Amino acid sequence: FYLSPLVRRRKPVFFDMHGCLVEEFHFETRSHPRSERTSGIFTDLANRIIDSVDRNIASKIICVSRRMIDHLRMNKNVPGEKLVYFTNMVDLDIFNPDAGRAQAVALRRSLGLTGKFIVGYIGFGQTLQGLNNFLETARRIKNPDIAFVIVGGSKLAKEDNRLFIPKVNHHEIQPYYSLCDILTLPRPMHL
Fold this sequence. Notes:
Blueprint: H1 4-8, E1 14-17, H2 21-31, H3 41-56, E2 60-63, H4 66-75, E3 83-85, H5 101-110, E4 117-122, H6 131-140, E5 146-153, E6 157-159, E7 162-166, H7 174-179, E8 182-184
Parallel strand pairs: 1-2, 2-3, 4-5, 4-8, 5-7
Antiparallel strand pairs: 6-7
């Protein structure tokens, strides 16, 4: 068992809990077009073991929402003293609408987006993040004055009103935020 050396040595184990590992696995599986969700006694048993281990092995569980804390306390019987609320944060000196504005204008021009209303998504292309919802919305909108920019992929590509930009280094990302008229996080609802 991969955590046993940590447990034997009494090293603290922290989990950053955005959702149940099993639920996230099932969400990814359901969303993948070529896979089928498995069920049965062995799958259910494995799911219960994974669900229990991630909560019971952890010294502390870091939650980014109060709703997750309530869920873990009420539905999973995790003691409150094991749960830590630590909200997502942002450096407002770097990530604000005015920072990088001049670079964003130049970027807009270089990408051929001058005069367009830009709806953006910046992040990894995981199903869990809701990127499929964003892309489906973009496909349905046929307005030539609206462009959908997705930053964080593997290559530069253009498909109709969608522009895919490869992953950008953290210290170079700010103009891409300023480029967007609307920045989205299309994540489906979860805890």
